[in-house]
């Protein structure tokens, strides 16, 4: 039955497409917005929810964007990206990832999120299954839901490095399996898949003729030795099956420029481009000129990206050390990205209570407690498919991280809880 609502004296049918009505809002965006709103109200909240580098975009990239504006590069671009940027992306993938592509295989989009959404929409539909290792990025299941396909969530575990096991993957696959989504380095865990594990996964994938892989590699340069990044499409027999997604937001601190790309076999790239042509058309002309400068900084982003990575590395070590010293928290050190995902299950339960606040039955409640009592905004793990953890972004200065961890440590002191 149509839903009618009275608004300004008129009756309007507010019913929605059932797939849209079923979509869940992003908790990361909601908590980031909450932290901003509280700050605007004068509340000194520290937001560690957003997946956004705190660095400025490197100067050479900014100058290229400014030059593009001044030189009149402000018109529509070709739908799948300028030929110059497509060629530069092909060069990057060849030199850094060992992947051979031509411009026809590249689709430049308004962020890697759009690239992933289009890849799912182009390859999946009703009756298909998409295998999603958990913890997962919050948007994967919702993108799958919007396509009409069914998400099959496969748990991974902290004691195993939050890596998908070959046995778990094999058990999850059926004749309906269409796509496996891999994210390495991982948002939200920071896990990095070693070559040996990817080779085991590739062997399983090769036994399923319909199975494709969407390889989300947006954090590829934010990785800490001795871990190394391996592109899934570079493994034997996987080029034809893999849709690789990358972009400029994380590694080049270009989140607001909104630019990502997909590299895939021509049939899939063409399908994604058709979707894009009917939704947004080409990405920003100015951002594409800036991206050329980003790729011109040198291998893996050159010195500017190396300096950011070194800062993230130091922050990771500090945050991990502080959290591991806190009673009741379990955490192993991640190898990439700028997140940690500590297990906080000892602070949760039907009988657990924060004495100054109230019951803490689940991780959502714990995060509400921390934002209200400690004034630190974090993301509950159930947003990522794991209800015993929370995600902390360490994309903040050491000064901010020190203050945030002092507040968290104080709020989680054993004498502030009962029933644990």
Structure characterization notes:
The protein has 420 residues and is an alpha/beta fold. The radius of gyration is 22 Å and the shape is globular. The N and C termini lie far apart (47 Å).
Quick structural summary:
The protein has helices at 18-21, 27-40, 59-70, 83-97, 112-123, 139-147, 166-172, 195-205, 266-277, 285-295, 302-324, 363-374, 398-411; strands at 4-7, 10-13, 46-47, 106-109, 129-134, 150-155, 177-183, 212-216, 242-247, 260-263, 339-340, 353-354, 358-359, 376-377, 379-380, 390-393, 417-418.
Rounded to the nearest angstrom, the radius of gyration is 22 Å
Q: Number of DSSP strands?
A: 17
Strand content: 15-25%
Q: If helices are DSSP runs of H or I spanning 4 or more residues, what is the number of helices?
A: 13
Distance between the termini: 47 Å
In oligomeric terms, what are we looking at?
Answer: single chain
Structural category: alpha/beta
Task: Let me know the average pLDDT.
Answer: 95
Fraction of residues in H or I helices:
25-40%
Which geometry do the CA atoms define?
globular
Strand order of the largest sheet: 4-10-9-8-7-5-6
Give, in order, the helices and strands. Answer: EEHHEHHEHEHEHEHEEEHHHEEEHEEEHE
């Amino acid at each position: 039955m149509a839903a009618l609502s009275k608004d300004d004296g008129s009756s309007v049918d507010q019913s929605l497409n059932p797939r849209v009505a079923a979509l869940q809002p992003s908790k990361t965006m909601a908590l980031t917005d909450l932290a901003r709103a509280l700050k605007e109200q004068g509340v000194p909240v520290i937001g560690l929810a957003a997946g956004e580098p705190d660095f400025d975009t490197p100067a050479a990239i900014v100058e290229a964007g400014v030059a593009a504006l001044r030189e009149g590069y402000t018109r529509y671009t070709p739908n799948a990206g300028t030929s110059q940027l497509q060629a530069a992306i092909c060069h990057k993938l060849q030199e850094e990832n060992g992947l051979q592509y031509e411009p026809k295989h590249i689709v430049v989009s308004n962020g890697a999120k759009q690239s992933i959404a289009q890849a799912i929409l182009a390859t999946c539909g009703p009756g298909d299954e998409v295998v999603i290792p958990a913890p997962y990025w919050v948007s994967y299941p919702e993108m799958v839901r919007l396509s009409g396909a069914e998400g099959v969530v496969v748990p991974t575990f902290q004691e195993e490095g939050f890596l998908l096991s070959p046995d778990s993957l094999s058990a999850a696959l059926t004749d309906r399996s269409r796509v496996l989504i891999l994210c390495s380095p991982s948002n939200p865990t920071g896990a990095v898949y070693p070559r040996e594990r990817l080779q085991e996964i590739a062997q399983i994938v090769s036994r399923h003729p319909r199975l494709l892989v969407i390889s989300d590699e947006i954090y590829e340069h934010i990785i800490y030795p001795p871990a190394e990044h391996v592109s899934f499409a570079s493994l034997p027999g996987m080029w034809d099956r893999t849709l690789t997604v990358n972009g400029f937001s994380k590694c080049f601190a270009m989140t607001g420029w909104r630019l990502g790309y997909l590299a895939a076999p021509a049939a899939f790239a063409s399908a994604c481009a058709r979707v894009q042509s009917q939704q947004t058309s080409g990405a920003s002309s100015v951002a594409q000129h800036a991206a050329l400068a980003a790729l011109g900084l040198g291998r893996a982003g050159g010195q500017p990206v190396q300096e950011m990575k070194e800062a993230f590395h130091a922050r990771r070590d500090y945050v991990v050390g502080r959290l591991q010293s806190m009673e009741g928290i379990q955490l192993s050190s991640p190898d990439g990205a700028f997140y940690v995902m500590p297990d906080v299950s000892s602070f949760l339960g039907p009988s657990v209570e924060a004495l100054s606040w109230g019951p803490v039955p689940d991780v959502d409640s714990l995060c509400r407690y921390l934002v209200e009592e400690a004034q630190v905004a974090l993301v509950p793990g159930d947003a990522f498919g794991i209800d015993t953890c929370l995600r902390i972004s360490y994309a903040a200065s050491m000064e901010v991280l020190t203050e945030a961890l002092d507040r968290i440590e104080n709020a989680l002191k054993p004498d502030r809880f009962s029933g644990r």
